[in-house]
Amino acid sequence: MPDTAHEKTETPASCMICGGTSFVPLGAHKGHNMFRCTACGFGFVHPMPTGADVAAIYDNYGPSISYTKKAKKKVARSRKRLKRYMHLANGKRFIDLGCNIGTTVEAARELGFDAHGIDIDPESVGAAKRSFPGGKYHAGPIESLPPEWGNFDFAFSTEVIEHIPDPHAYFEALTPRLAPGALLYLTTPDAGHWRVPGNFPDWDQVFPPHHILYFTKDSMTRFLDRHGFDVIRFVWSLKPALKVLARKR
Ligand SMILES: [Zn+2]
Asked: Does residue 6 register a pLDDT over 60?
């Protein structure tokens, strides 16, 4: 293969968030090259792993014992977090996207929500059903959300989006299931945070193929706007964590 053809596959064509065509290389991790869009600051792995590649990574994911042991603590932490934002929700139908063993679903249920959880991993969902049977759970991709669950008023998505090769497809499936005015609380690593190391691969949040998208406030605002959300505010964080509250228009 001639060198030029190889180079072509190495450079991204356009930014999936803003359509920008100018990039700076961010270095590589385990053979995955990363780039940052100069227009919106969005960072990403290129070439992007396919959905099948990513699914294969999570085949043996499952709930870890230590995570299960910490479940009680996690319920308490989720309850604290929910209490901070629940006054912004217009209704009681709650969903945790990427619910793992159900600790946030349980916290929401305790606070009076009609609490649901979805996770790609059937083992985690099995553990959730056993540990916290008061919630409703579903194992599968977002596209398989049970229609009988109806639409939601309040959605949590914590540390999920950075794993998804096609976030637009994800939100195209999610957004119709949120009621107008629904509250979204989403967290993901913050690639624009002042504490991200100058040498990007040194950042502890950089581990493709698990983390493949690196949002900034600007790129997240653009992304959410495209999918019909207005940012209410970003929650201040000492750590490089993006925590956004947004409302569906
Ligand atoms: Zn961009």
From this structure: no
What ranges do the domains of the chain cover? 3-248
From ligand 1's centre to the CA of 57, what distance in Å?
27
The alpha carbon of 194 and the centre of ligand 1 are apart by a number of angstroms equal to: 19
Ligand 1 centroid–CA 21 distance in Å is 8
Distance 26 CA to ligand 1 centre (A): 14
Inter-residue contact 164 to 142 (CB < 8 Å):
no
Cα angle 96-100-105, degrees, rounded to a multiple of 5: 40
C-alpha 36 – ligand 1 centre gap (Å): 8
- Whether 54 contacts 165, CB under 8 Å: yes
Give pLDDT tens digits for 113-143: 999 999 999 999 999 999 999 999 999 999 9
Mean of the pLDDT values across residues 152-178? 96
Which pLDDT value is given to residue 189?
98
22 Cα–ligand 1 center, Å? 8
Give residue 219 CA to ligand 1 midpoint distance, Å: 7
CA distance 247 to 230: 5
Residue 177 corresponds to which tokens in the numbers above?
A: 């299931």
CATH number for the domain running over 3-248:
3.40.50.150
Ligand 1 centroid, distance to 68 Cα (angstroms): 38
Nearest alpha-carbon partner for 214 in 50, 43, 34: 43
Length of the chain: 249
Render pLDDT for 178-225 as a digit per residue (tens, 0 to 9).
Answer: 999 999 999 999 999 999 999 999 999 999 999 999 999 999 999 999
Question: How many CB atoms lie under 10 A from the CB of residue 182?
Answer: 23
